[in-house]
Design a protein that fits this description.
By secondary structure, the protein is mainly alpha-helical. The protein is 53% helix and 2% strand. The chain has nine helices and two strands; from the N terminus they run ααββααααααα. It has a two-stranded antiparallel sheet. It is globular. The two termini are 32 Å apart.
Length: 216
């Protein structure tokens, strides 16, 4: 996969707030840059927790992912620029989040952070499953493939949901995305006792959307 800088346009006007854009401090950043800034704020720097199956981790990047990407240095010294490159190519671009950000950047941020923490195979599938469940048996828009890769059909389904359901549709979509994410954390803790060391902290990634945010 070749590197490609996100080319998602910045929305303006009343739709900007609905798409999850933050205040002026981060206003000059792309959707990817804002999403990764959020995730890095949770992940922090280097760690090597004995209960973490991922082993040595830096900037939220496990050693195995870093090695597969071609980094051969010590994990303690993993450059932030390399971590950002990994996040762009193996997470944001691999799961097609430019398509999601075109409709709602906050949803793209949610899916990105879930992909980093739970795996890209889960993150977009959560979105696709929820969109299918909310289409009123296909009357509002057709089912989309639950294939873990966002594209124009995922974008179109989101647009149809927002057009027909408005602010409430956006609220419900984000609520169910967080519900699926939280349920998997409980599953992980029940399946492996050592994961109880992390489940309290994982909760900060499961946040219900603010009720006053509108839809585009």
């Amino acid at each position: 996969m070749t590197a490609r800088r996100s080319a998602v346009p910045m929305p303006t006007g009343k739709g900007a707030r609905a798409r999850g854009y933050v205040g002026p401090v981060m206003a000059g950043l792309s959707p990817f840059e804002r999403a990764v800034a959020h995730t890095l704020g949770i992940e922090g720097g280097y760690s090597d927790h004995p209960s973490d199956r991922g082993g040595k981790t830096n900037w939220g990047i496990t050693e195995q992912v870093a090695r597969d990407f071609g980094y051969q240095g010590p994990m303690e010294a993993l450059p932030k620029a390399t971590a950002l490159d990994i996040y762009r190519k193996l997470y944001w671009e691999r799961i097609g989040l430019d398509w999601v950000a075109l409709v709602d950047e906050q949803v793209a941020l949610e899916v990105f952070d879930t992909g980093v923490n739970q795996g890209v195979g889960y993150a977009v599938r959560y979105l696709q499953r929820v969109l299918n469940a909310l289409n009123r048996q296909g009357r509002d828009y057709p089912d989309i493939a639950v294939d873990g890769s966002a594209g124009p059909k995922t974008r179109d389904a989101m647009r149809a949901l927002y057009r027909l359901r408005g602010a409430a549709g956006r609220q419900v979509l984000l609520t169910y995305l967080n519900a699926l994410q939280g349920a998997r954390y409980i599953d992980l803790a029940e399946a492996r006792l050592a994961n109880e060391d992390f489940i309290f902290g994982w909760a900060q990634r499961v946040k219900l959307p603010a009720a006053d945010r509108g839809a585009a």
